[in-house]
C-alpha cells in the first residue's frame, strides 16, 4: 500500500481542487490519501464525491498552533467535523486569516513592493487565505523566484519583515480538542528548521504525555540525519511515525506520494480514531 497522509487543495493553499487532488492521487498510484487543508474541512465533500475506485480518503485538517512563541502545525485525522468545540476553534483561526493577510500586504507596500490585496485574493480564490498566497504574489511580481524563497526573514518567515501573527491554538488544547472529537493527532514536519524556529524535543515529550499520537518524520523538509533523530525520539516517547508529501500542487515541487506512511502505522491511526472513518472510493463523479 502507498499512503500519503498530508495533502492540500484549493480549500486552503493548494492548487488542485479537492476533486483534482483525489484523481491525481489515484493516477500517482496511491492507495490512501489524506486531505488536510489548513484549519478547514471545506474540501472533504467534493473529494468524497470524486473519489476514484481503489483510492481511500482520510479526512483531516492541519491546525495552526503556537507554543512558547514558536509556530507549529498539528495534523488532525478522522475527527468529527461537526463537534462544537473543535469547530469553534477552527473557525476562530480561519476568521483571523483575512486581516492577517491584509496586514502582510500593507507591510509589503510599505517596503515598496507593489502587491495588492486584490492580487492576493485572486490567488487565494475560494481557499483559506494564507502566507503561501502572499508568497505566490511575490513570485508573480518577480520579487522572489519561488514560493519557498518567500519564507525567509527578509519576507514571510516567522519574525520576518512582513510577518503578521494570527490566532493560533495552543498545541495541548489542540490535542484535547481533537481527541474530544474522536480524532488522532500528528505533529507535522516538527524539525523543518528552514521555516523558522522549531519546537524543542522537551516540548514534544510533554505533548506525547498529553496524548499526541505521532510525529511526521519522512518529509521534504527533513534531511536523512533529522529523520533518523526523529525516529529515535518517537521510539523513546512511544509515538507513531508518519511520512507524507505535504503536497500543494504546483505551489511546491514535491509530488504526491513522494513520501509515504507505513501501512501498519496507518492501521493504528484508523484503529484509534472514533470521530470518522476512512472513505473507500466507489468510482467518483
Helix-strand blueprint:
Blueprint: E1 3-7, H1 18-27, E2 32-35, H2 44-50, E3 56-67, E4 70-77, H3 84-95, H4 97-110, H5 117-124, H6 131-140, H7 171-180, E5 184-187, H8 201-209, E6 214-218, H9 224-237, E7 240-243, H10 263-272, E8 279-280
Parallel strand pairs: 1-2, 2-3, 5-6, 6-7
Antiparallel strand pairs: 3-4, 3-8, 4-5
Helix pairs in contact: 1-2, 5-6
Detailed description of the structure:
- With 285 residues, the protein is of the alpha/beta class.
- Helices cover 36% and strands 15% of the residues.
- β5, α8 and β6 (214-218) form a beta-alpha-beta unit.
- It starts with a strand and ends in a 5-residue tail after the last strand.
Mean pLDDT: 95
- What is the H/E order? EHEHEEHHHHHEHEHEHE
**Which range best describes the helical content: under 10%, 10-25%, 25-40%, 40-55%, 55-70% or over 70%?**
25-40%
The global form is globular
Distance between the terminal alpha carbons, to the nearest Å? 24 Å
Helices, by number, come to 10
How many strand elements? 8
Low-confidence stretches: none
Q: Biggest sheet, open or closed, and with what strands and sense?
A: 8 strands, mixed
User: Structural class, judged by helices and strands?
Assistant: alpha/beta
